[in-house]
Structures are given as structure tokens and as C-alpha cells.
Write a structure and sequence with these properties.
Blueprint: H1 6-25, E1 35-42, E2 51-53, H2 55-64, E3 71-82, E4 86-96, E5 102-114, E6 117-129
Parallel strand pairs: 1-6
Antiparallel strand pairs: 1-2, 3-4, 4-5, 5-6
Amino acid sequence: MRDITVAERVEIAELLGRYGRLIDARHWDALAAIFTADARFDITPLGARGVLEGLPAIQQHMANAARHPAAHHVTNVHVEALRDDCALVSSMLIAVQHDGSAASGRYEDEVVRTPTGLRIRRRTLSWVLPPG
């Protein structure tokens, strides 16, 4: 394990922020700039959806099956560990619902460097305060 640089912290925080903005803007194709092609996104807390395997499954779910809140806010980004090939990152999610209520959750991510920049390879969602 090695120390993380300030530039790497900023790059990771911007990746996570970009995810929220792309989801809110409904730019499903642009999720290729967020996730690796073989990404795994565990959305089990959202119900029967379970685990999405691969970028196409994530994009298809987001475009056709997800019930998106009015806005996503990704906060409290913390790099838990940095290895040569990946960073383990924890962040909080505030999901503002269409009725004005809010939900709060946590993302646990494995972020890797690719030839085209940082991407999320593994993401797990858990609720602190679920919607409703």
C-alpha cells in the first residue's frame, strides 16, 4: 500500500460527482466514463434487482428499470485504502425524492486506473435511511 496524492483524491472525488450528475441528466451512454466494461454494481437494497454485471447491464437498468430520485448528491468521499491497482473508496449518497423527502445511503467502491482514466470496477449500495 502507498500514500495517496492530493491529485488522486481530487480525481476520485470528481469521478464520483460525475456519476451523480450523469444519472440526474439521464446520460446513460456516458456511464462508460464512470464504470469499467466489466463493472459489478450491487443494488440489492433496491429490491429484487440484485447485482448488475457489466457496463451494458448497468446502462440498461438505469435507462429502463431504475426509479431515479429527483437528484443525487455524493458526499463525504473517503479513500479507505490505496493499492497499486485500485483505491477502495467510501462515500455517502443523499437522494432527494420527487416528493421532497430524502434518502441517505453509502457507496463502497473499488476504483481502478484504466488507459482512459479512473473507473469504478465494483460498487455496492447500502441504505442508511432508505426512501419512503
